[in-house]
Amino acid sequence: MERIYIAGGCLWGVQHFFKSIPGVLNTEAGRANGCTNSLDGEYDGYAECVRVDFDEEVCSVDALMQYLFEIIDPYSFNKQGVDEGPKYRTGIYSTLDKHLEEARNFIASRDDCDMIAVEVKPLTNYVRSADEHQDRLELYPKDYSYCHIPPEVMNKYRI
After folding, report:
1. 10 is catalytic
2. Rounded to two decimals, what is the model's pTM?
3. d(CA 12, CA 10)
4. Could you say which of 10, 49, 59, 147 is catalytic?
5. 67: part of which helix (H) or strand (E)?
6. Between helices 61-71 and 11-19, what is the axis angle to 10°?
7. If we measure between CA atoms, which residue out of 97, 149, 138, 17 comes closest to residue 105?
8. DSSP state of 22
9. Rounded distance, CA 55 to CA 103, Å?
10. In 3-state terms, what secondary structure has residue 86?
11. 79-94 confidence digits (pLDDT tens)
């Protein structure tokens, strides 16, 4: 099992989408690369993210990047859909250099690489989000209307 942290705007939709990807074993809503170890502050520099545990034999980092680019505007800085601010920035975070290198190579291989606003950084800190944010769209389907990911994309890989 491998682990990577994916930020793609509001974490509710990102978690719901990645749970349906073949090779993804587990997800958890959280916050990456902030400056505290608690949820007390107003995000304290964190990006909303989803911890993704995956089987690299089934789903590579390159594939995860392709999936991410299906649900984000990769050119948008600190904004996805109606959600705006640094906590909604897009990014890939990991404790493994090989994951970061694969993500950078994915971006560099694109013709539009100079315009892409997705940050790729080592994971310096992670805090699990409160229970009310875990699997939010499965528990409260009416919240779909709030999500920046269109329903036809959100459920594209669901069986």
Report:
1. yes
2. 0.94
3. 6
4. 10
5. helix 61-71
6. 130
7. 97
8. T
9. 16
10. helix
11. 999 999 999 999 999 9
